Amino acid sequence: MKLLAVRRLFRIQRVVIRYRLDDLLFALPLPWFLLAVRYVLPWRWFPRKPLELSRGARLRLALQDLGPIFIKFGQILSTRRDLLPEDIADELMLLQDRVPPFDSQHSMKLIEEQLGKKISEVFSRFDVEPLASASVAQVHAAQLKTGEEVVVKVIRPGLKPIIGQDLAWLFILARAAERFSADARLLHPVDVVADYEKTIYDELDLLREAANASQLKRNFEGSPLLYVPQVYWDWCRPKVLVMERIYGVQVTDLATLADQRTDMKMLAERGVEIFFTQVFRDSFFHADMHPGNIFVSTVNPWSPQYIAIDCGIVGSLTPEDQDYLARNLFAFFKRDYRRVAQLHIDSGWVPAETKLNEFEAAIRTVCEPIFEKPLKDISFGQVLMRLFQTARRFNMEVQPQLVLLQKTLLNIEGLGRQLYPDLDLWNTAQPFLERWMRERVSPKTLLGNLHSQMEQLPHLASMTRDLLERMSQPHAKDPAPPWHRRKDDWFLRLLGTAHLVGGVMLAIGGPLTPLGHWPAGIMVAVGVYLIVRR
């Protein structure tokens, strides 16, 4: 793996040189010591022909050449038009579903291998030209023999080695950062990369994506908010997914949405409601919500419904994280910054010795300026910088289990900024969160929790009975208890020493106790036995 990783590094370097990405980097207002690096790069010592490509096209093509991890990074950036120049954002949007496809004949061969049948035996029609192509897979339109219009998704070949090499470098950089930077240790970069490794490898298994889509569809069955296409399980395999073909308008096609008189305010508000429903009601959220995966139904533009595809990446929260997050957000909406500070300390997100008043003031400084403003008037770049400064000052640690949620929030906020810039994010989200918190303490919910706890009682009773039986009648094949194991002698010696010391101290104070010296004698005897026994 190390040799492959080194080879991958040279590949990245060649792409950087080919598309002159170093020119884009050194055009930024960097510190002098970073700008000085350009004079030691050998390929900059010789004159180079200028490229006839825009800077946005150069960046897009470089990310395409470098593979899935870099493409996904470009997809996230493409939703942040508030942080990027217009020309670069326009080019990066092409990474959402217009990545160059791989050979269609290869695609068809792989589909037949996975299904174990000829394409003509399964489909009455199969479009050789891909309908769309992205970083991990490409999609072909088709029709089943039974008449249903479907799409066939097939994984790109040869992705695992490339992803493995990129992840190897990410781990190297993360470990180096943790070793040499105290600030980096607060971000837990190794844990973040490990979570991302699991996520991207899961995305290569289309059976997992099919299961995620089925679960999400079940969660929103009959809902006017979100529609998820049906999965045809009979034709799903690890590298092939067949699901219902949907017809809608891509969420960033603002001209078409305007032509059909879509209620953009309601569309933006429903996007926020869908997010909170997935996170708090279901604890199961679509975590790859870039515009290439989100469409809008054309059926009722005055009551717009979202359509979600590509459920390869989903996230969930533990009940503890869900509870702390909800209480933090609720206090945040109420502008109760002291409560927010206290919750961060209670949850361990900041050290217990943090001064509550100082932390409360820092949170107020960051959060107060963004209230009562529409999205278009909020500079999230400045907010992020202030948050990082606050985190550094108070040793606030990044929670790796929330990274997917934070990524999804960035996508949602960027999408809302494009759809309806006048959206009041806080007033839209607050009623939903208040309703969810009321439902958590409703009699129905409490009775349901009590019922689930009572269902565990027979299991706990059975476990207790089995444990007591094993303790009273040990089986010959059962492992020996700790006090019979040689490797635990050190523990027994330590325990014996404690008894011996305690016995001596008790002997000294014995006359002061009504029991006299005899307890001390017992402790000394037990201590000596434990120390010298074999």
Helix-strand blueprint:
Blueprint: H1 2-18, H2 21-26, H3 32-35, H4 55-66, H5 68-78, H6 86-92, H7 104-115, H8 119-122, E1 123-126, E2 132-133, E3 137-144, E4 149-155, H9 159-180, H10 182-187, H11 189-203, H12 206-219, E5 226-227, E6 240-244, E7 248-250, H13 254-259, H14 264-282, E8 285-286, E9 294-297, E10 306-308, E11 314-315, H15 319-333, H16 337-346, H17 356-367, H18 380-393, H19 403-419, H20 425-440, H21 443-455, H22 457-472, H23 489-509, H24 518-532
Parallel strand pairs: 5-10
Antiparallel strand pairs: 1-3, 2-3, 3-4, 4-6, 7-9, 8-11, 9-10
Helix pairs in contact: 1-9, 4-5, 4-6, 5-6, 9-11, 14-19, 14-20, 15-16, 15-20, 16-17, 17-18, 23-24
Q: If you had to describe this structure to a student in words, what would you say it looks like?
A:
The structure is a single chain. The protein is α+β, with helices and mostly antiparallel strands. The strands form three sheets. Strands 1, 2, 3, 4 and 6 form a five-stranded antiparallel β-sheet that branches. α9 packs antiparallel against α11 (189-203) and α23 packs antiparallel against α24 (518-532). β3 (137-144) and β4 form a beta hairpin. The protein is built from 24 helices and eleven strands. The protein has helices at residues 2-18, 21-26, 32-35, 55-66, 68-78, 86-92, 104-115, 119-122, 159-180, 182-187, 189-203, 206-219, 254-259, 264-282, 319-333, 337-346, 356-367, 380-393, 403-419, 425-440, 443-455, 457-472, 489-509, 518-532, and strands spanning 123-126, 132-133, 137-144, 149-155, 226-227, 240-244, 248-250, 285-286, 294-297, 306-308, 314-315. Among the domains are: 2-95, no CATH class; 160-199; 443-476; 482-532. The longest helix has 22 residues, at 159-180. It is globular, with a radius of gyration of 30 Å.
